[in-house]
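User: Before I run my own analysis I want an independent prediction to cross-check against. Here's the chain; please return only the structure tokens and, at the end, one sentence I can use as a sanity check.
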Amino acid sequence: MNNLVIGASSGIGEAIVKKFGGLAVARREEKLSQFEKYETFDISNIQEIEPFVKSVTKEYGKFDNLIFCAGIQNIKPLKVMKVDEIIQIFNTNVLSAMIFAKAFSSKRVSHLKSSMIFISSIASYKPESGILAYSASKAALNNLIKGAAKELSPIRVNGVAPGFLETEMTERFNHIYTEDFIEELNINSPAGLATIDDVVKTVKFLIDSSHITGEIITVDGGAVL
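Assistant: Structure tokens:
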């Protein structure tokens, strides 16, 4: 499969490229060099997304799947967050995803039976104090998934909403995500905490499911039941 994987330098994106191959795209090159095909690109450069997608299509050929794994989180109470921090979260988690979807929908970039998969979060359904901007951005991403599934058909558009995963992003907040916190989450998840591998398997399921579109599959061990 010729996948276009955005946010491939760590976590879910890195695991997807290792498992299924494709073009790995991320802002930092340090971990991308492990892959056969990779490009560095900063998705915050919103105006450059469409030219970038056109250029990599010219070099690597049409893509079968767009898998958008990029995302940022900033754990702060809303009243102390800077406006620029909120804008950055929405630019990364929603606006860049929308522009990638726009670019990927071109017949010059993808096939009629191609698909798009966006990594959302259970925070999109269950906002908590301290992550309101992140939760709202992921809720907006869910709306984008469902709307794009209608508008961009026959390209299929789906999402995966993981629960808490131990990734490079969450490691930045280990003062909050303590061992006790993670243990409590595990106890309150009927099937136990999900792993990155569980998410990767769900992405593969959506790639292979030719009649599923507009769906967002929660992978959290039942934590939101």
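Sanity check: The CA atoms of residues 64 and 114 lie 5 Å apart.
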